[in-house]
Amino acid sequence: MTLYINMRTENKIKSAVFLSPKFELGPGSVINRYFYGIDFPKGHIAVKSFNSEVVDEAGHSVPLHETYLHHWLVARYYQHKHVTHTEFDSHRMLQDSNHVLVRNNGLCQGNVLRQYFGVGSETRRTETHIPDPFGIEIGNPKEIPEGFEDKWLVNIHAIDTRGAEDKLGCTECKCDLYNVTVDEYGPDYKGGMLCCSDYAQCKLKEGFEGAKRSLYLRYTVKWVDWDDSVVPVKIYVIDVTDTLKLSDDNSEGINSDHNCKIEYQVDSCSADHKEGNGCVDVMKTSIPLQTGGYVIYAVGHQHSGGIGSTLYGQDGRVICSSIPSYGNGNEAGNESGYIVGMSTCYPKPGSVKILDGETLTLVSIYNNTKEHAGVMGLFNILVAEQLPYQPFTHSTRSSFIMDSNNMLLDN
């Protein structure tokens, strides 16, 4: 059962700390589960930050070299008021008529990458605060369908690597280390979330034994009550694996079919490249953003081996570069060899503008001295369609053409 811990108010900013439902992990075991009806601040609010980490029953931080946090995702949905249950562990729930997923503004197909918040191993040392006067609007009663109420879910994907024969291989979900049959995935699928699904087991060192333990995702939410002084931001998640197919029907603007695969494989480079220190894998995609605005916050997401990712505008300008930091110790938040943080971008409001219909290019770079399975190259951006105290005027696709020559001045 979700546990409420603390609440305080400082300068109108309210803060609460919650625990997810309990989950149990033994050496080499995996959880990739959805918990519904988790605790979250109520009412019409503006979220200012969301942070989390894995803790044990005593509230102690659990280091990545014991429990690797592959990712956590927090999503919003509407639930019909006559439904009495509040907690599930199956994502199939959203397929019935009593529940409606509330998507972010991201570009991927269907319900792929539609979370409001979410990162991975870098969670403890990645900034998430949203500067004043901006915020993520939640709980507007005008937007909630009649008979429904706001609810939240969390997806936790964690891997216990205590006693693992190959810790990095377990965290990369390499199929040959897991008790799975991979024939159905094809010979080229060497690793990824299909091989480290819920209840999977990674190979342990012979004779290793260890006890199961109860763990939680502890998350801290900061927010302010909504009023006219808050400027709303939209949430976009861009995936470097997104392959875009443009539609022939452009009667309603840019129509397209996105295919975000979320993960991809990084093959090891050749011996001659290793000698020349040229072992880098570059993955990129170019995607149009139908509705633009001013970038308020941006951050990338990569896995071990990542060197950095950069989001570019159509004219080649850098919107944001996000670089991973690796730990060099043993304590939680500084685990050696793991990505423990991603650098973030906080442009001065109004200084970085994405125009309607502008094509963005995302580049994700990995070191490929050795191969990496199941890596990711995601980029999260928060965009405000207007600035404080500025009358809102919605630009059109034609304004993109007219304003393109002034892009550098606008930025």
TrEMBL record:
Task: Check the record and name the InterPro entries matching this protein.
Answer: Stress_up-reg_Nod19
- Report the protein name in the record: Stress up-regulated Nod 19 protein
- Species of origin: Vicia faba
